[in-house]
Specification:
By secondary structure, this protein is mostly beta strands. It contains one helix and ten strands. The longest helix is centred in the first third of the chain and has 7 residues. The radius of gyration is 25 Å and the shape is elongated. The two termini are 27 Å apart.
Length: 159
Amino acid sequence: GSNWNRLSDALLGGWDVSGLFSRQSGMPLAVTLSGGAIWNGTQRPNLVGDPSTSGPMTSRLNNYFNPDAFSRPPTDVPGTAPRTLSYRGPVIQIFDAALIKNIRMLTGHQLQVRIEAQNVLNHPIFADPNTSFGSTSFGVITSTKIGPRQVMLGVKYSF
């Protein structure tokens, strides 16, 4: 914008852009037993099959893992499911960005305009599925960890 007129340069020139991209694997899933009946300790369900499912994330919201891979153990038997499965919750992937414009006013005075956005791409970040065997929503994802895109506008005057 070095050849722009003063008004165009004031409105369109000199913006700073910053961004932050973060990607994390999901947390290991720990399956518990709803209404377990064991005298001492924690009762987990029996692992009787492969809990893995396939397909895109959005098609697995109602069956993130295979609930038929688990069964209820008898009373006072701990169950065969490990403490955590070798199966993880949904991936966390988010992109945040900011546009910042510093405008020099009088000597020693400055106006800063900031436009910041969280979850710029507006992708859903799904929460972990319900891991309580015996619950009606076992294996179902019912919420998100991070909400939809949020945009904030800020103005700061320094003197």
